[in-house]
Specification:
DNA-bd_dom_put_sf, Multidrug-efflux Transporter Regulator, Chain: A, Domain 2, two-stranded antiparallel ribbon, 5 helices, 63% helix, single chain, mainly alpha, DNA binding
Length: 127
């Protein structure tokens, strides 16, 4: 179940605080996402940000991509195709493959490091 499927009224818009509470992402980060073109908000007549409920899943996806090591500059062009099938192109898939390959190489390096640490620990335990 996605976070947006939580008990939230479908016809209401979220404030920045509401979106922050649902996603665990600070309002400051949400404003940064908007500045970087990763998230968009409607504005009330008073200028307050309002988000639709699809923003919850979008923020969670952006967080996962950041955690995977992508930058906002790398996320911006691929995000539309990740959330809407009509924006998927060969170039998008190629870019995603490149990011995936980079992540696989990083995971392999980390696994090698774990092996080295295990060897040292095992040697110490035998001593």
């Amino acid at each position: 179940m996605s976070i947006s499927a939580m008990d939230v009224r479908a016809d209401s818009l979220l404030s920045i605080g509401g979106l922050a509470a649902l996603t665990g992402v600070s309002p400051r980060s949400l404003r940064y996402y908007e500045e970087q073109g990763l998230l968009s908000a409607r504005r009330t007549p008073a200028g307050h940000r309002r988000y639709d409920h699809e923003a919850v899943d979008r923020v969670v996806l952006v967080q996962r991509l950041f955690a995977a090591g992508l930058t906002s500059t790398e996320i911006r062009p691929v995000l539309p195709g990740m959330v809407a099938e009509e924006h998927r192109t060969g170039a998008l898939v190629s870019a995603l493959r490149g990011y995936r390959d980079r992540l696989q190489q990083e995971v392999a390096r980390q696994l090698d490091t774990i092996d080295i640490l295990d060897e040292v620990i095992d040697e110490q335990d035998r001593a």
